[in-house]
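Pasting two entries for a bug report.
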Amino acid sequence: MNWTYVFQTKDQIGTFFYFPSLNFHKAGGGFGPIRVNNRAIIAVPFPKPEAEFDLLIGDWYQHNFKDVRSKLNTTVWAYHMPPDGMLMNGKGPYLDPFTKAHESFTVTRGKTYRFRIANVGIAWSINFRIQKHQMVVVETEGSYTNQITLDSLDVHVGQSYSVLVTANQEAADYYIVASPKLSNATDNSSLVGRAVLHYDNSTTTPNGPLPKGPDPFDLDFSLNQAKSIRWNLTAGAARPNPQGTFNVSNVTLSQTFILQGSIIDINGVPRYTLNNVSYTTPDTPLKLADNFINGSDVYNLDEFPVNSSNPVAVDGTFVATGNHKGWLEIVFKNDLNVMDSWHLDGFGFYVVGILRIKTLSIVPKQSLYRGEIFIAPVLLATKFVLLRKASCRTT
């Protein structure tokens, strides 16, 4: 069966990827990169690179996703079934004895290249780095950023970044590494993604140890790096006017949702819940149910606790109503000991506060507009969403 999607990339530029978002289908693949280029009349805030490379990185299960999904529905496996490996563009790690192919990118000394990196995995945040090369972050999920130079970059599940890499080393081959966060994976483990940066006149293979990354358990590194990536206020993006023309600090909020994730057993089955509600995928897609039968017998409208937790954990299909063209503030809380990533299908948002204590640090002036946010353990984060869609119910 083939599907063709037609959509307008109005008011968007940048680096994205497509993926299935329900029923663990993402673990079966079905994802790919999306590039949205600037219109010719709008200047890009960096010189045109020699070439662009898409790099999809993600953890991977060797078993069929349906089998994995079934096991994760049991208390025996739910908390003890990590992914089996890390893939780069669907290929196994360089020199891994169980895989033949590995990813490689060919560059010319003295040239600069744009890598569009996305974490397409299920569970693990990653730290990305290239042996003996620095990278300049220039864009994330449709927003040009202030350009900062990094030795390594944390990319959390669902996030996408553009970085510029200049081939300024001796002609050779160099390791490209993606290692999992909150894991003790060793360098030669299949859990560490390894690819090759190949200079076009190189005659040597990568050598030496893998480039060392930050402590995978150092949450402050992840948090401080995320807070350092800010909106470029003077660059144009999808429109000629600068991104900073709009100041989110002037908006009037119409709604506030406070959402807290937790892990709990419901009827003996382990579940991840949001405000003590575990989402159940209905047989009828929500959009069809909304358009043709007004949701009757498919979902419960406005029964979801948007500012508190249900006293008892439940399964269900709950839909919350948003105010069309209103500004919604969403506050995420994470009391768990794992990274928590959030994505709103069809929406971007302004990240306006992020902190690891009970008081938020609000920084609306350079609030980064993006499509994905990670919430580290014991972290509070808030974002603003403009509900611009004609149908603005969110799940």
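Entry 2 (this is the one that rendered wrong in the viewer):
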Amino acid sequence: MEAKLLPAVEDLLRERSIHEIGLDELLSRAGVAKSTFYYHFRHKVDLLIRLAGRVADDVLTGNGWWAAFPTSRSELGARIAVTFEAYRRHALLISALLDASPSDAELRATVEGTFETASREVAAHIASGQKRGKVRTDVRADAAATWIMSMMVWGLPRMVDPGAESDDVAVAAESLAVIIWQALYSGVTKPAGKKSAS
């Protein structure tokens, strides 16, 4: 059901804010009967919560740059670009969710939970990398992860909007890659014969 409603929501968000989209209009755009909607969802906010989870899976699960340890800064930039492209596909909805979350406790908890989950995954990546000699040991994993994710949450809406060109996304990804590479990976001892990107 979310697969039918997600494109309709994102289509309507090109025309008006999430607060101005009525349920009847949304269901008409998606071609979904009201009885069918209420079989799956309690109300519009319940739909937004489910869509938030679906979008988080698309943007973060499998697309997070922290899924593996990069061997070069360019590889890190390429991985971040994948995450940014996934974000761009859903930028309107993500912005709408952030805008609506302060007025609904359940939606706010969902948005905050997504941030906290991603931060924990980045912290685990850092801690694991430190044990394996792939991440600098002078970095506090939890604090660094929170700062990195906060930069992404603040920066993505400003630098990767739905109309951004692929070149703009690549520049944004490379810029963040420079910051993360220097913060986490630069200066880590490599096996003889291998050089680190700088």
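Dev reply: Rendering is fixed now. As a check, the viewer should reflect this: The first helix runs from residue 2 to 13.
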